[in-house]
Amino acid sequence: DVVTLTGLVYVVPGTYNSGAMYWQCASGTGGMTLFDSGLVVAVGDEVSVTGTVGAFGDEIQLENTTVTVLSSGNFSLPTPIATGDLAAGTDMLGSLMTVQGMLSKTSADGCFNCQYAIDDGSGPVIVFVDGTTGITEADLDSWTGDIVKIQGATKCYNGEGEILPRY
Fold first, then answer.
1. Which one has a higher pLDDT value, 136 or 57?
2. Count of C-beta atoms within a 10 Å radius of residue 113
3. What backbone torsions phi and psi does residue 72 show, to the nearest 5 degrees?
4. For residue 108, which of 48, 63, 126, 153 sits 20 to 30 Å off, Cα-Cα?
5. 21 has a pLDDT exceeding 80
6. Pairing mode, if any, of strands 114-119 and 79-80?
7. Distance between CA atoms of 14 and 19, rounded to whole angstroms?
8. How far apart are CA 124 and CA 103, in angstroms?
9. pLDDT of 44 higher than 80
10. Contacts with 23 (C-beta within 8 Å, 6 or more apart), sequence order
11. Are 49 and 34 in contact (CB under 8 A)?
């Protein structure tokens, strides 16, 4: 099916890779990923996206898209979610969310794309840190064992929910 949806951009291409844009409806009740390495948008742009409904892995996406910027300078707040609820999967994948809990490292030292876990007592969820975000492993290692708040895109990989910090 071809659909047209409107929402606010909260991750621009180049943050996680050359083409991933994350956007969500203004109410924060749902979000989606779009891949287009030629797209020029800014965080806070309200966009209208027309495309064919498809999927990549466990996520619904739009393909063969046309994107129109309707306005700029908008703001959306992240939705808080329990770490255990996000780990189990959620109907809000693709949305801007925030989790808070104790940070622990789960991947080997010296990695480009590192994995950590955060747990608020309801169960751990993966924190996938893309090497292109500018977030350093040294910074995250210094916070291991601390209570932290992480804000970013939510996705599902191999059936497990994850949060991807933006910066």
1. 136
2. 12
3. -130, 165
4. 153
5. yes
6. unpaired
7. 6
8. 9
9. yes
10. 7, 8, 9, 10, 11, 31, 32, 34, 47, 49
11. yes
Polymer length in residues for the chain: 167
pLDDT tens digits, 106-147: 877 667 788 899 999 999 999 988 888 888 888 889 999 999
Of 134, 129, 89, the closest CA to residue 111 belongs to 129
Q: Which two tokens stand for residue 148?
A: 């932290």
How many angstroms separate the CA atoms of 32 and 30, rounded? 7
Q: What is the pTM of this model?
A: 0.85
- Classify residue 150 by burial, with Cβ atoms within 10 Å: 0-12, 13-18, 19+: buried
Q: Are 89 and 159 in contact (CB under 8 A)?
A: yes
77 by Cβ neighbours in 10 Å (0-12 / 13-18 / 19+) ranks as exposed
The DSSP element (H or E) to which 84 belongs, if any, is helix 83-87
Q: What is the pLDDT, as a whole number, of residue 13? A: 86
In terms of phi and psi (left: phi > 0; alpha: psi -120 to 50; beta: otherwise), the region of 94 is left
Query: 46-56 and 79-80 as β-strands: parallel, antiparallel, unpaired?
Result: unpaired
List Cβ neighbours of 27 (8 Å cut-off, separation of 6 or more).
none
Q: Amino acid identity of 94? A: G
